[in-house]
Amino acid sequence: MSNLFYQGRGRKPVLEQARGVYMWDRDGKRYLDGSSGAMVCNIGHSDPNVLAAMRRQMDKATFGYRLHFETEASERLAAKLAGLCPPGLDRVFFVSGGSEAVESAMKLARQHALATGQGGRCKVISRTPSYHGCTLGALAVTGYATLTAPFEPMMRDMPKVPAPRAYLDDLNPNDPATGQYYADMLDAKIRSEGPDSVLAFILEPVGGASTGALVPPAGYMQRVREICDRHGVLLIMDEVMTGAGRTGRFFAAEHWVTRPDIIVMSKGLGAGYVPLGAMIADARLVEPVLDAGGFAHGFTYAGNPLACAAGLAVIDEIEAQGLCRNATVMGEKLLARLAGLMQKHEIIGDVRGKGLLCAFEFMADRDSKAPLPRRLNAYQRFVDIAYGQGLIVYSRRTRDGIEGDHILVCPPLIVNDTHLDEIVDGLETSLVHYTDEIA
Ligand code: PMP
């Protein structure tokens, strides 16, 4: 009996060691980390340079409360992140995780509205499906029914628009008319809510746990930016999963040259070494808030020097090892290999992704796009089978949290061809096993 509890009652193997793309449990079983934890360990486990940077910082100071001290590590990391963002997006607020980063963005947006005489703006529009975190504020903008339903009376219901899912709607994702079609739903929603009541629109540039690596259709991002500008609505990009190189650019927003007003990031920044996240905002948003008396928000552990020193070292590794480039190259190979699996295995109905944020979706019938029956719990069962093979993958339900099963295949950005072979072999064996099981 353990004193720990997380989601369920099941006990997991005890982790003993992790190096690069591999992890070992206490019984000596080896796993290939095909999900980078939960899309966290972008540079792999136990990187010696990151560990050395953390040791150096530990020898100096591990904590300084942010209202008492700046630290060299937090200042340098803030400057580094500002340099990686589009010009103007240069005010950095540190947090310890993705949900905290999302909360911070929504509270900054609200305080900006108050400071600039737009106090009626309080609604944050988001998409269904989407995932933005588990704190009540972040959950309020999460479009995932099973997660939100129990808490609905406790949080303000925020308006939602459909996330573009061209593959389900039989639309061509490469046709700009498709992007326009979905973006115009945002326009209609802002108008029906009343533009003066809408504060911001938040979206994952490439869907993560929610839509399963779904890439926006052509023209969508640009059109969304235009619509937000037209209505004075702030655009918040949730790069918690996509940031830090996962999609082949440091920020996924770069693929569409769409300039958000606020970027939030976390997972790949701490990369499994430390809890760390950041909200990076346009100076034009931050200045009025500071003039009006300051940003009334903050978390005790935020921006601690150990976390920031690790974050800096992580970015140094991403740059020194060319990991954005590797994510692009290996991601293209992985997608091609997944498409190969789809040709052989009828149960795979769609394959998609960007960089090393890749996924496939199970379907009972490719033509009708019917999902597998819900009772099969395919998303959980497949992960267990792969786990048995020593391959870790990540899965969720795709269709609004209720049905549809996707498997995210998102190894650390340091993967090479040999690792890819091992991943694809593990998937293939697991697919055969699973198809036999449900036959
Ligand atoms: N936003 C996105 C896009 C995420 O994927 C996640 C975590 N899966 C979060 C926010 C919340 O991050 P955290 O679990 O670190 O609070």
From TrEMBL:
Q: Which cofactor does it need?
A: pyridoxal 5'-phosphate
Entries under SUPFAM superfamilies matching the protein = PLP-dependent transferases
Q: Which InterPro entries match?
A: Aminotrans_3, Aminotrans_3_PPA_site, PyrdxlP-dep_Trfase, PyrdxlP-dep_Trfase_major, PyrdxlP-dep_Trfase_small
Q: Does the keyword Cytoplasm apply?
A: no
What PROSITE patterns is this protein classified in? AA_TRANSFER_CLASS_3
Which GO molecular-function terms appear in the entry? Answer: pyridoxal phosphate binding; transaminase activity
One Pfam family it belongs to = Aminotran_3
Asked if the record carries the keyword Transferase, the reply is: yes
**According to the lineage, what is the superkingdom?**
Bacteria
Keywords per UniProt: Aminotransferase, Pyridoxal phosphate, Transferase
Q: Which family does it belong to?
A: Belongs to the class-III pyridoxal-phosphate-dependent aminotransferase family.
Record-given protein name: Adenosylmethionine-8-amino-7-oxononanoate aminotransferase
Organism, scientific name: Sedimentitalea nanhaiensis
Q: What is the lineage of its organism?
A: Bacteria, Pseudomonadati, Pseudomonadota, Alphaproteobacteria, Rhodobacterales
